[in-house]
Amino acid sequence: MSKHIIVGGGVYGAAVAWHLASRGEAVELIEAGTIASGASGGPGRRGVRANGRDYREIPLMVRARELWPGLHESLGTAPLYETMGQIQLFEREIDLAPAEARAALQNRLGIESRVLSQSEVRELEPDVAPFIRGGLYCPGDGVAFHKTTTLAYADKARQAGAILREGVEAARLVATNGRVTALATTQGEEIPVEGKLMLFCNAGVKDLVAPWIDLPLWSRTFLVAVSAPLVDNPVRHLVGHASRTLSLKREPDGRLMISGGRPGTWDAATRRGTPIQREVDLNVADAVAVYPSLEGLKIETADTDHLEAECIDHIPIIDNLPGNEHVLYAAGWTGHGWAIAPAVAELMRDWVLEGRKPELLEPFAYGRFG
Predict the structure, then answer these.
(1) Assigned architecture for domain 86-139+223-305
(2) pLDDT in tens, 104-153
């Protein structure tokens, strides 16, 4: 039996390792840091959101929604996912027509969606500011504990026989006449590629495949701010905003998570991020503007320690390396690959076992760039 090599110990690497090992495949996963130390880690819960997604991702989201509610049973953990609904608020008249068009598209693709009037928003979120005109609502959306989920996948992979090695960083792909034969690590080890080599190290994929292709990706670190516990947290749903850089999540302990895509600074040498106070202040200001009762909100944690890879067209690239059908990669999740992870992991497993790319992954091919 050929051994499959996986690079990256985030949710994709851990989930695919489990799926393959549980089918009797030999799997070795290497992770530069520790499992879930990258974009799959961090504080709080992460949104499991269909609302506002690129239409090419929605079929993946339909399948992911079937998996999320019972995933904890498959992984043998406490519940990981909570359905709470997602509302994308809007305050400008010009955002109404796009919301109506997106609701029609999402309903057609199997995601229940509807546009809320001003009064309907207030029925669901009584504390929003008076200037909020309406919202796009997906009642089936929710949140999940991302680090806990990733660690649970990793534990199941180990139990199924996969080898997971932490503190082992991929340096380059070793090739003969353009064909990859081994994976070199920064410690000087060369790991032979016998079966499939899968690159799920997100921000690190671009450099590894650079001798073959130039992926239109870049890396950023995003701010995740978490408040001190609130006596009365006014946010009842997963909340986004059509024109503000704002995403709000209510945590089980009463804290409020504020995110949405504001940047931090990244130090490649230390692999740590540093929050930018102005960006923290702007995130809080937007939250207070939309929910005036949050005035005086205190931020307890400002996290920018998780590097993310963004793609030029805001959806991931999932493909095999030119001339190397045995080398598969997935990168450029652009901050929203988490929700579809259970579905994509299944499809990557099928690709490895059946030897052909699943149809649902075709829209994410590198060839879309011409």
Answers:
(1) 2-Layer Sandwich (3.30)
(2) 999 999 999 999 999 999 999 999 999 999 999 999 999 999 999 999 99
d(CA 126, CA 133): 13
The pTM assigned to this predicted structure is 0.96
Q: Does an H or E element contain 352, and which?
A: helix 341-354
CA quadruple 18, 67, 86, 53: dihedral sign: positive
Q: Using CA atoms, how far apart are residues 10 and 75, in angstroms rounded to an integer? A: 16
Distance of alpha carbon 283 from alpha carbon 289, whole angstroms:
10
Q: Domain ranges in the chain?
A: 3-46+147-214+312-369, 86-139+223-305
User: Inter-axis angle of helices 341-354 and 58-67, to 10 degrees?
Assistant: 100
Residues in the chain: 370
- Cβ–Cβ < 8 Å for 347, 361: yes
- Alpha carbon distance 317, 162 (integer Å): 26
Distance of alpha carbon 94 from alpha carbon 133, whole angstroms: 11
The architecture that CATH gives domain 3-46+147-214+312-369 is 3-Layer(bba) Sandwich (3.50)
Does the pLDDT of residue 43 top 90, yes or no? Answer: no
Residue at token pair 């499959």:
4
* Chain segment 52-106, per-residue pLDDT in tens: 999 999 999 999 999 999 999 999 999 999 999 999 999 999 999 999 999 999 9
The residue type of 287 is A
The CA distance from 348 to 351, in Å, is 5
At 52, the amino acid letter reads G
pLDDT band at 329 (very low <50, low <70, confident <90, very high): very high
- For 210, other C-beta atoms within 10 Å of its C-beta total 12
